[in-house]
Amino acid sequence: MSGLTAQNWPIAAAALPFPGRTSDGRSVTDAGPEEWIGTLTEIADAGFDRVDVTDSWLRVGDLNAQRLRAFADVAAEAGVVPTSISAIRRSVIDHADGEENLAYSHRTLEAAAALGIETVSFGLHQALTAQQQKELWFWTAEGHRDDPADWALAVSRLQELGRHAAELGILVSLEMYEDTFLGTADSAVRLVNDIGLDNVGLNPDIGNLIRLHRPIEPWWELVEKTLPYANFWHVKNYARDEDSARGEYFAVPAPMQYGLIDYRRAFRYAIEQGFQGVICVENYGGDGLSVCADNRDYLRRHVLPKREGYALGTSRVRQPQSVRGGRS
Asked: In a 10 Å sphere around its CB, with 0-12 CB exposed, 13-18 middle and 19+ buried, how is residue 242 labelled?
C-alpha cells in the first residue's frame, strides 16, 4: 500500500462481537445468507465498509464454492468488503486436533483467495477451558500453555501454511496470545524469523497480553520489538491497575483512547517502521460493535496521518498490495 492516510487506511470491523450460533441454536456457518446479511448490514450501519471475517462468527473455510459466492454476494449487498480473516483457537499444534486444524487452515486460505482477501491471521491459542468459559472474562483463568517440545512442529506447519498462502498471493499474520509461542515479544519474533518467509509476519495484538491479571511485559517494549514484523493488526485496549506489592492485577476492556496502550504513540512508531497493513478494531463486552466504531473514529481523527508523504521505514515483512478488499 502507498499513500495511505486517515481517510483511506483500511479499517475493518471484527465480527468478534457476533455469536457463532443463531437464536435457535444453529451454526451461523450452516444457517446461510439469510442469517449473514443481518450481521453484515449491522456492520455497515455502524459506518464500516470493511469486515474482518472472524471465524468465531463464520467459518468461511467450511463453505463450499457456491456458499462462498453467496457470502460474497450478501457482503456486496450490505456494502462491506471482506478484507481479512481471523482464524482463532484452531492451533496447528493442538495435540488432539492439530492435523485437522492444519487442514482447516489450508481451506481457510483457499476461501480467502476465492473471496479476494489478502490477509489471513492464524494463532496458536486453543479452545477455552471449562473454567475459562465460566468466568466473566475468560483471560482471568489459566488456559492452554504451549509445550516447548512442539516448537519445531509449529515452525514446520506454519511454514507449510505460509508457502500455500504465497502461492495464492496472501499474507499470513500470526496473532500474539498469552502462553503460546506467540505469547512474548521475543518468542513471537523468534518464531517469525525461524519460519523465514517474507509473507509471514505478526499480528501484534498486545491487548491480549496487557489484560492478564498477572505481571506483564511493558506495553511499549512489546510495541518496539514486534511492530517491525507486523503485517496486520488487531487493536483493542484495556484499563489496567496493579498493586505489585500485594500481587494484585486487574484489567477490563476499554475504548482505545482510554486504556493503558497509547495507540497514538504506537501507530507513530509502527508507521516509521513501515507498517501499512489492514487494521482490525476489536472489543469485548457490551455493545462491542459500537465500541469498534468509536475506535475506528479515534484512529481516523487523531492517530492516522492526515496527508500523504509521511516517512516510512523498512518493514521486515511484506505488506498487502492494495487498499481494496481483493488483490490488484
From this structure: middle
Gyration radius (Cα) of the chain, Å: 18
First vs last Cα of the chain: how many Å apart?
11
Per-chain mean pLDDT for the chain: 95
Q: Who contacts 268 (Cβ-Cβ below 8 Å, separation ≥6)?
A: none
**pLDDT tens-digit map of 250-272:** 999 999 999 999 999 999 999 99
Cα–Cα distance for residue pair 16/319, rounded to 1 Å? 24
Q: Residue 54: what are its φ and ψ, rounded to 5°? A: -75, 130
The dihedrals phi and psi of 20, each to the nearest 5 degrees, come to -90, 0
| Element containing residue 172 per DSSP (H, E) | strand 171-175
Tell me the C-alpha distance between 125 and 108, whole Å: 17
Average pLDDT over residues 280-290: 96
Please give, one letter per residue, the 3-state secondary structure of 83-149.
EEEEECCCCCCCCCCHHHHHHHHHHHHHHHHHHCCCEEEECCCCCCCHHHHHCCCHHHCCCCCCCHH
Scored b (16 or more CB within 10 A) or e, 110-140 reads bbbbbbbbbbbbbbbbbbbeeebeeeeeebb
